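User: Could you write out the 3D structure of this protein bound to zinc ion? I've included everything you need below.
Assistant: Certainly. Input first, then the structure.
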Amino acid sequence: MASKFILGKVSETNLRGVRPELVAVVRRAIELTSVDFRVIEGVRSEERQRQLVRNGASQTLNSRHITGHAVDCAPLVNSAIPWNDQSKFKAVSDAMFQAAKELGVRIRWGGDWNENGRSNDEKFYDGPHFELRRQEYP
Ligand SMILES: [Zn+2]
């Protein structure tokens, strides 16, 4: 069966340099997802990371983006990112976790940092963020 969505040019460009295990998860997730999504960021320079921390958009200089262990996948609805609708981010995460399970890759989601299956107890909800777990991928 043909999937509903495909990765666009921006997503493909942003996947450059990302760890192959995580790229594979994203590629499978776009086939599974019920909501379209775009890879809005992959590998990040240390300078950009410092800037994000200064702006309050990130809380760590030890970001998994710098090493290619993280991607930001944002839902797309009518070509726009519904930043205030967490249910759409959850839908992308469902596809990402399903894909990761199929491929035997262990990931962690910025909407559930403590991995308890809930987003409403997160101090720093980061809905588009997915990373390879440090435990399995140091
Ligand atoms: Zn991120």
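The first strand starts at residue 37 and ends at 41.
User: Perfect, thank you.
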